[in-house]
Amino acid sequence: MCSRETGLWEACARDAARIERTLAGIPVARTRVDAQAFLHGNCDIFALALHEAYGYPVEIAANPDWDEDCISPLDALAHAYCRDGTDYIDVRGRTSDREAFFLPFTEPEDTGFEQPSVNEIKDTSTCLLGTDVFGLWLADAEDLVRAHADWYGPPKECPPQGRSFLLRRTVRPEYRRRDPPRMDGPRTTEGTIGRAGRDART
């Protein structure tokens, strides 16, 4: 069966603990941490790297009452990620399983979802980290995205189903099998040639 799941969702069979351990074993060069930091902590920067590489829209899960308590939904951030149709993409890879995707962060039914502008995310991260440190985190995220393009890029299309049936249905009429023509008159074991010869002698 063709699956749209990629990256650690596929490699770790959706096992959340295995996914976390695997991320912890992927080193990140400039900031000297591991890839788990892009799942818990700087997920918004990783979402920016995905956006810049593939153009996916960035979305965030936040406290549904953020507009009452915060200036920006980023102030109540639970997780930042990218969307591609029905798929959710972050450092773990791509999945369409919404419940499993949000399980480490929040309950989806209790969460507000927003699509802040890319500039708003950059400005907020730069304000919190400083320009130089933000640049290091973004460069590390971009390195991961490039190194694992098969995890984060557009999914491979599933092979079409029922192709042979479709081909049979589109055969040109003149090449379809026809029933043999009906012969008038009684049939004999002589066949048509024998009957024609007999008629010619009478």
Order of helices and strands: HHEEHEHEEEHEHHHHH
Shape estimate: globular
Number of strands: 7
pLDDT averaged residue by residue? 77
Stretches where pLDDT falls below 50 for ≥5 residues? 160-177, 188-202
Which range does the strand content fall in? 5-15%
Structural class label: alpha+beta
- Adjacency order of strands in the biggest sheet: 6-5-4-3-7
- Which range best describes the helical content: under 10%, 10-25%, 25-40%, 40-55%, 55-70% or over 70%? 40-55%
Characterize the biggest β-sheet: 5 strands, antiparallel
Backbone CA Rg: 31 Å
Domain count, please report it: 1
End-to-end gap: 71 Å
What distinguishing features does this structure have?
7 strands; 43% helix; alpha+beta
Could you describe the 3D structure shown?
With 202 residues, the protein is an alpha+beta fold. It has one domain. The chain is 43% helix and 13% strand. The protein has a 5-stranded antiparallel beta sheet with strand order 6-5-4-3-7. A two-stranded antiparallel ribbon has the order 1-2. α3 packs across α7 (131-147) and α6 packs across α7 (131-147). The radius of gyration is 31 Å and the shape is globular. The chain starts with 6 loop residues before the first helix and ends with a helix.
